[in-house]
Amino acid sequence: MGVGQRPLTHLIKGMIMFIVHWCNWGPKISGMYESVKDQCKYERREGLRSELGIHYEEVPDLAVRNDKGFTPITWEEAKKADVHVTHSMIPDPIKKLAKVTVAVLHGPTEHMVIDDWTKHGSGLNLHINLLWEHDATVCLNTHEYDIMRLYDERVGRCRYIPNSIDLEALDGVQPWVYQNHPAIISCDTPRTEKLPVHIIWAMPYLIEKIPSARLNIFSLLLEPIQYWRNIFVRSHARVLETACESIQLANNNLRPFQAGADIGFNNNYSGIASRVTMEMMALGIPVVSYNGAYTKYHAKPFDLHSIAEQIARCWNDLKAPGSTLRDETLRYARENFDRGKHVKAYVELYKELLAKKQG
């Protein structure tokens, strides 16, 4: 079982409750995978048997699929589970036998809607189908919940359990030493709902206010490298390139860079606290965003001058004599982003759904 194993205490008719999470394999690449790994760790601490299933590999090769002891199980073994949780897809042979199924929505609704329009897909309808087909569907933030509950045909299937991370994984992170301060960090992989370009364009206006400020941008996609080259070096006098200290493409360990930064920027235009936002705050790094209760520094979406203004405001608060901003940021993260706390809501959900099925 590996990661997070503890004595098993939750019983269903005298048997250990058995949960399988269906997800793509993606250590250090996929935020969804890392979230599932966190979930299995903390469900095991709660006394459940919690495992990973890969929907496209019936018998995973454990010589390859081994993430420091965290390994997937076969479909045959997964058939014994009490609850199947889909983060990507439950294989049809498993779904037919499942006692209880739960869907967790990772993709933001805006992403799904825009994909519908640009790719002629059915992203939003897929989410609605998940809500209608499964015994419960979990939204990870209030924004998604406010949207998806409008489609809750059988009222009560749509649930809200806040997104969270493994805070223990951040213990002992050695911070990267930046040369310029404030060191602003952006870690968002480009998506239709989070565009890491406005923070780039805002930097010259921030430098007018704080000449020493520099951007450190990570997680840009490898494929359109020419696109990013044009963004930076075709600006007049390469002003956008010189406004940055670090420009990096795909990276599988952001934590040192997050820990060493002064201020984080969340590019999601709905203000949803992404995994990297939670990680930054759990390392004591305050965040500027477009919305969200986790920060008081709200820029107007896509407004370059507003972004610069809010970063400057945050930096002034950080430098103020007796500033407690870092401590407040860390305290908020510990109180609100701890997977060890929020996993208990999943355990209660599983028990509730199983009880209904068993009459």
Layout: helices, strands, pairs:
Blueprint: E1 11-12, E2 15-16, E3 18-22, H1 31-45, E4 49-53, E5 72-73, H2 75-78, E6 83-86, H3 92-95, E7 100-105, H4 109-119, H5 123-133, E8 136-139, H6 142-148, E9 158-160, E10 183-186, H7 198-209, E11 214-220, H8 225-233, H9 239-242, E12 244-249, H10 255-260, E13 263-265, H11 275-282, E14 287-288, H12 304-319, H13 325-336, H14 339-357
Parallel strand pairs: 3-4, 3-6, 4-5, 6-7, 7-8, 8-9, 10-11, 10-13, 11-12, 13-14
Antiparallel strand pairs: 1-2
Helix pairs in contact: 1-14, 7-12, 11-13
Q: How would you describe what is shown here?
A:
With 359 residues, this protein is α/β, with parallel strands linked by helices. The chain has a seven-stranded parallel beta sheet with strand order 5-4-3-6-7-8-9, with helices on both faces. The protein has a five-stranded parallel beta sheet with strand order 12-11-10-13-14. A two-stranded antiparallel sheet has the order 1-2. β1 and β2 form a beta hairpin. The chain contains 14 helices and 14 strands. It has helices at 31-45, 75-78, 92-95, 109-119, 123-133, 142-148, 198-209, 225-233, 239-242, 255-260, 275-282, 304-319, 325-336, 339-357, and strands spanning 11-12, 15-16, 18-22, 49-53, 72-73, 83-86, 100-105, 136-139, 158-160, 183-186, 214-220, 244-249, 263-265, 287-288. The longest helix is centred in the C-terminal third of the chain and has 19 residues, at 339-357.
